[in-house]
Specification:
This protein has 221 residues and is mainly alpha-helical. The protein is 76% helix and 0% strand. Helix 2 packs antiparallel against helix 3 (45-65) and helix 7 (140-169) packs antiparallel against helix 8. The chain starts with 11 loop residues before the first helix and ends with a helix.
């Protein structure tokens, strides 16, 4: 979501960049695919959770060697390590997905709280990215768009939890791994696209906010 810039018009290229391009997709999908393949073949919890972690570390090392941004890879390795630890501590491969449930639930709660407070989380994030922390609220159009976009992300996290939790409690590890793949990048791409559609503007947000403020000052004169 950090790559969404309101003034940009939605385009295939912009969406592709928001998803991280080929490298971003590979780094996101391969570890989850590795878990699914290894577990399907071996039914071994240890091998199933270590394989994705090894891939994550390899991606991190590759970024360091190539002197590229390492934050995405560090975040990925951290999540993979926590997930692996959860599964290894219980001996249940299903528990590899528990940290993901927690992350989705936390974001869902944050979004709902922000919407209840009328400070939609998407607006706060975009405001922080554009250096316009609170001024965006002066633009009614952007505020409505941010609210609608926040509901889109609420829908994403609700769908993920609604699909994956029943599989977790049913102990269907392979189905859960496949569901995680299908509700991962594809749903994220849809949410990013709709966020763009809802927040796109003919002029940058700071300029739009300045125009609104200027209009208000004229009316006050």
């Amino acid at each position: 979501m950090s790559a969404v810039v309101p003034p940009e018009q939605p385009s295939g290229r912009a969406l592709w960049l928001a998803l991280g391009g080929v490298r971003g997709l590979v780094e996101s999908v391969l570890p989850e695919l590795a878990f699914l393949v290894v577990y399907s073949v071996t039914k071994d919890t240890w091998l199933s959770v270590i394989a994705p972690l090894v891939l994550g570390v390899a991606f991190l090392v590759a970024r360091i060697v190539q002197r590229q941004t390492v934050l995405p890879a560090i975040g990925g390795v951290l999540i993979l390590a926590i997930s692996a630890a959860a599964a290894l501590l219980t001996g249940n491969a299903n528990d590899n997905f528990v940290p993901g449930f927690v992350i989705n639930a936390v974001f869902l709660v944050l979004l709902l709280v922000s919407l209840a407070a009328r400070w939609p989380l998407v607006g706060l994030l975009i405001g922080a990215i554009t250096g316009n922390a609170g001024g965006w609220r002066a633009d009614p159009r952007f505020r409505r768009g941010a609210t609608a976009a926040s509901w889109v992300w609420v829908g994403l996290f609700v769908i993920r939890l609604a699909v994956e939790l029943p599989l977790y409690f049913a102990g269907l590890t392979e189905a859960l791994a496949l569901a995680r793949l299908l509700t991962g990048i594809p749903l994220y791409a849809v949410a990013v696209w709709f966020t763009w559609l809802l927040l796109r503007s003919p002029k940058p947000v700071p300029e739009a906010v300045a125009a609104v403020a200027q209009e208000g000052s004229r009316k006050g004169d």
